[in-house]
Amino acid sequence: MSLLDRIEACHRHDISRYLPFGVGAAQIGHMRRDMAQELRRFPSVFRVGASDVRVAEHLDTFDYRSAAIDSVMRELRQEGFIRGWRDELFTVAAQYGAEPLFDLERAGVPLFGVKAYGVHLNGYVKRDGEIWLWVGRRAADRPIEPGKLDHLVAGGLPSGVKPFDNLIKEAAEEASIPKELARRARPCGALSYRMELDGCLRDDTLFTYDLELPADFVPKNHDGEIADFRLLPLSEVERLLAETNDFKFNVGLVIIDFLIRHGYLTPERPDYVQLAMGLSRRP
Amino acid sequence: MSLLDRIEACHRHDISRYLPFGVGAAQIGHMRRDMAQELRRFPSVFRVGASDVRVAEHLDTFDYRSAAIDSVMRELRQEGFIRGWRDELFTVAAQYGAEPLFDLERAGVPLFGVKAYGVHLNGYVKRDGEIWLWVGRRAADRPIEPGKLDHLVAGGLPSGVKPFDNLIKEAAEEASIPKELARRARPCGALSYRMELDGCLRDDTLFTYDLELPADFVPKNHDGEIADFRLLPLSEVERLLAETNDFKFNVGLVIIDFLIRHGYLTPERPDYVQLAMGLSRRP
Rounded mean pLDDT of chain B? Predict the structure, then answer.
């Protein structure tokens, strides 16, 4: 096992297993074929063809599309087809910053394979010039990757919330970081990956932030998503990433970026370019 | 004009205008068609087919390939086909860190369209918490992009030299940065682009470094490559990048990465993801 394995795991998928999903002329997602079959029952909302699925053309505004798709999602939920309902809306668009096409319940995002966004915070302290990273362990009841190591703060980006505002909110909920401290976090970039998870295509982009924390800061979780926190030297973080599967899949990507940006990994490594190029795919 | 235009310029190319160039089973470059025609005269060194160019199979070691290709390069130089001879060897491999296949005179690299590597240094100072970037202006007699704005320190990676050692050497030659100061530079990542320049395909990867300089440091150029230096606030750097073509093409890519990593550009920009994803292409 190696750091490269962590990156490869985030890009592994077979696009032929999915049907293109679109709105108007834009292709905006990749749909599970069983989901497409279910949607045949809703011809006034979805046009399911042999080679793609499209939102019905008469749904020609954000509000029409959002309402119609939401009613389908709720029906599929009642039938047990959609599980893990979050009551949280994500905005769907052809790409980041483009015109929003509709809002979608978060639990439905993987079924459509549309682009989703999140924020991840590298919370660290410096001891004698060495960097130590705060790492959380996900609660045992989390639907995705229970018990795995996670960032101090991480969360999906809900509809209508700006990335930095979301980070501040999550920092309070997940690690009790006071607002005035969280506001010192610095945006450092965006990473992207496209992978299969539980039979769905995840097409995610993560906004990464760095926050140097005071030496005496101790995180406390409020929302029950994290079981406990630990502070690890980068050497141990690197070892866990390279030799184990202990970290949640996408956290590995963000931490490898952190190790590169902070000069912990250097171009003298033969795999340096592969690591750096593996942190994103072209949109 | 916009920051995105600077990025797009670094990725613009029409791959169909080139012939694949390879060694053994590996495709390692993209050759200008007129170069391929010239190489038909050297059938003991190059096999020029209708759809690709390969190094002759009997040249089955690094040394054989390097010597045979070098002799061809020198003949093409004498005939005036290759100009701007540098007397500097670059190592050619299928990818970074892979087995070196041969050494190639730097002036020949664009003709073969093989991967080349360089180091770029963001040299900056902090004034009242604001970042100012040292920027050089390329000498009027430079073969590429004379008079354009450039990094404080930048250079190609010659054969057998490690990236950080090359940075230290270039820092002394290009900006008179003492070794003990240059050694504080931190590697921050790798960027890549593939673009057409003067009819050749450039397939470059740049290793980026950050160095915070003392407020009283003033760079002096030793090798004649830089005409003068200036210290600019990031707002002015961003304005020049977004509104002018004053910066050398690839310097824009490295500085946009710097603006992203230091939180000067933020995910609240609608074009943030496109900017971040545009900093590299998958190898």
Answer: 96
Determine contact: B129 vs chain A, CB below 8 A: no
Confidence of residue A13 (pLDDT cuts 50, 70, 90): very high
Compute the nearest-CA separation of A204 from chain B (Å): 11
The answer to whether residue A222 scores a pLDDT higher than 90 is no
Q: 3-class secondary structure for chain B?
A: CCHHHHHHHHHCCCHHHEEEEEECCEEEEEEEHHHHHHHCCCCCCEEECCCCEEECCCCCCHHHHHHHHHHHHHHHHHCCCCCCCCCCEEEECCCCCCCCCEEEEHHHHHHHCCEEEEEEEEEEEEECCEEEEEEEEECCCCCCCCCCEEECEEEECCCCCCHHHHHHHHHHHHHCCCHHHHCCCEEEEEEEEEEEECCEEEEEEEEEEEEECCCCCCCCCCCCCEEEEEEEEHHHHHHHHHHCCCECHHHHHHHHHHHHHCCCCCCCCCCHHHHHHCCCCCC
Report which residue type is found at A218: V
Predicted complex ipTM exceeds 0.90: yes
Contacts of B260 in chain A (CB under 8 A): 187-189
Is the separation of the CB atoms in A49 and A232 below 8 Å?
A: no
Task: Indicate the residue of A263, A279, A280 with minimum beta-carbon distance to B188.
Answer: A263
Taking CA atoms, what residue in B is nearest to A211?
Answer: B263
Query: Could you tell me if B124 and B133 are in contact, meaning their C-beta atoms sit under 8 angstroms apart?
Result: yes
A/B interface, count of CB pairs below 8 Å: 113
pLDDT tens string B114-126:
999 999 999 999 9
Q: What's the rounded mean pLDDT across residues B1-19?
A: 94
Nearest-angstrom CA–CA distance, A16 and B165 = 46
Determine the Cα–Cα distance for residues A188 and A190; give it in Å rounded to an integer: 7
Q: How does residue A121 score in pLDDT terms, banded at 50, 70 and 90?
A: very high
Distance, CA of A195 to CA of A201 (rounded, Å): 6
CB–CB contact A268 B95 (8 Å): no
Rounded to the nearest angstrom, the minimum Cα separation between B260 and chain A is: 6
- What is the residue-averaged pLDDT of chain A? 96
Interface test with B, best of A206, A257, A271, A277 (most B CBs within 10 A): A277
Contact status, residue A159 vs residue A62, Cβ threshold 8 Å? no
- What are φ and ψ of residue A76, in 5° steps? -65, -30
**Structure tokens of A38?**
């279910």
**Structural domains present in chain A:** 3-11+116-279 (3.90.79.10), 15-114 (3.30.750.160)
What is the pLDDT at residue A283?
42
* Residues B217, B219: Cα–Cα separation, whole Å: 7
CA distance A174 to chain B (A): 21
For residue B165, the chain A residues in CB contact (below 8 A) are none
B282 vs A281: CB contact, 8 Å cut-off? yes
Identify the CA nearest to B9 among candidates B242, B231, B273: B242
Residue among A206, A130, A122, A132 at smallest CA distance from A171:
A122
Taking the Cβ of residue A269 and every Cβ of chain B, the question of whether any pair is shorter than 8 Å is answered with: yes
For residue A188, the 8-state DSSP code is: E
Distance (Å, whole) CA B260 – CA A187: 7
